[in-house]
Amino acid sequence: MTIEMDKIVSLCKRRGIIFQNSEIYGGIGNTWDYGPLGVELKRNVKEAWWKSAVYERDDMEGLDAAILMNPAAWEASGHLESFTDPLVDCKKCKHRFRFDDLDGEVCPDCGGELTESRSFNLMFKTFVGPVEDSASVTYLRPETAQGIFVNFVNVQQMMRRKIPFGIAQIGKSFRNEITPGNFTFRTREFEQMEIEFFVKPGTDEEWYQRWVDERFRWYLDLGINKENLRLRDHESTELAHYAKSCVDIEYLFPMGWCELEGIANRSDFDLRQHAEHSRKDLSYFDEAAKEKYIPYVIEPSAGADRATLAFLIDAYREEKVKGDKRVVLALQHRLAPIKVAVLPLLRNRPDIVEAARSIAADLRTRYKAVYDDTASIGRLYRRQDEIGTPYCVTVDVQSLDDRQVTVRERDSMRQVRVPIEGVVEYLTDCLNRGELVDLTG
Ligand code: ATP
């Protein structure tokens, strides 16, 4: 099924997932706020990444470096000089484009004549301290990677790490993109999930391939459909100045195949540059081999916002149920913003309400669960389906007699009766297994 982006944007607004930033003032170009459910979804994406990148490996450390850095770091990294996009303006309608996005020689909007292309640096400039002079200029980081490189020796020595090992980081990055758009796909402020993996020169190609496989599998493991994911090798003409090789993991977004994540073999470029500019020794001494070298770096660099958008799009389903349209977000349980919703069948029966609230309170000690009685049961189910809640628990009149509740599964809409006692463990089991557990079988 191909899904228009508008449907996703509208669902996100309607259900409190993503809002336009500063909406009451008319918004600000391509800047979005994650609402109560969006913040949960994105946190789950980031947690799944951190778990696989840091906790499940014994060759990785985490880091949270600052957004502002000494501007010398950006000179060393090459960003001051070459983190640019070629920019052209239409002389007639004044619209602005990235030259490398254009197919023809004229304005795609009005056919007008275009200006000469000029380089535009994507870094946001700002000032440190009260005086706005050139000595106080610094930049909002356009990638989190440099915060890792400048800490390479700190982490390696303090954590007593041997090569190969990596450093993982999640954080905000900023780029003054010329042509942002497609909802949260390209924004000026976004979060990256980056790994710099330090290896011995000569083993870099093998590690590069291992990371490509590992990162591709991560998206599949979290439920992305295989046919919507592909790898695209960069042509040699397309490679960044530092990269030995680079591949993009692409997702089939509504606007076509676009980059989700880039994996690059950056050679020893970054550490060598920082060593030269800082005049510090950033090499590594291999005790066993009595050998000193500057490590090569493999960089899997993903976007938390792009990944979140891809998971949303991939999970979106429209179905017909008894003549009605049902919208379902078939998110993997790990990613679902709310894990369980507890719904009383009759909200004017205090005993039913009390039983439902008590189950919700028990569930809340484990994960995000809600109690909701603001509509009829049918509408409550639809609402939870639309936000991807894997399980709904309904407390009805009979529950008071037989001490059982109905558990309904989102995708199959299958319902089972489960004893109230132990229902929390039962749901936790279902969530861990990713499917409704059959008590009778
Ligand atoms: P693009 O070609 O789409 O501009 P890029 O190749 O410049 O991306 P990288 O520098 O490789 O991107 O950044 C790594 C990841 O960070 C990207 O794969 C993407 O997921 C994310 N990312 C980069 N720029 C943006 C942006 N403007 N908005 C949202 N995410 C972004």
Structure description:
By secondary structure, the chain is an alpha+beta fold. It folds into 2 domains: 5-72 and 141-312, BirA Bifunctional Protein, domain 2; 338-433, Anticodon-binding domain (Rossmann fold). It contains 13 helices and 23 strands. Strands 3-9-10-16-13-12-11 form a 7-stranded mixed β-sheet, sandwiched between helices. Helix 2 (36-55) crosses helix 9 (304-315) and helix 3 crosses helix 8 (269-278). The longest helix is centred in the first third of the chain and has 20 residues, at 36-55. It is globular. The two termini are 35 Å apart. Adenosine-5'-triphosphate binds at residues 143, 175, 177, 186-187, 190, 192, 259-262, 301-303, 305-306.
Could you name the key traits of this structure?
Rossmann fold; binds adenosine-5'-triphosphate; 441 residues; single chain; 7-stranded mixed beta sheet; BirA Bifunctional Protein, domain 2; alpha+beta; globular
Alpha carbon gyration radius = 25 Å
- Please count the beta strands (DSSP E, at least 2 residues each): 23
The CATH architecture term of the largest domain is 2-Layer Sandwich
* Helix-strand category: alpha+beta
Query: How many strands, what sense, and barrel or not for the largest sheet?
Result: 7 strands, mixed
SS summary, helix count: 13
Per CATH, the class of the largest domain reads Alpha Beta
Rough shape? globular
Helix content: 25-40%
For this structure, the quaternary state is single chain
Low-confidence stretches: none
Estimated share of beta-strand residues: 25-35%
Query: Can you identify the CATH superfamily of the largest domain?
Result: Bira Bifunctional Protein, Domain 2
Strand order of the largest sheet: 3-9-10-16-13-12-11
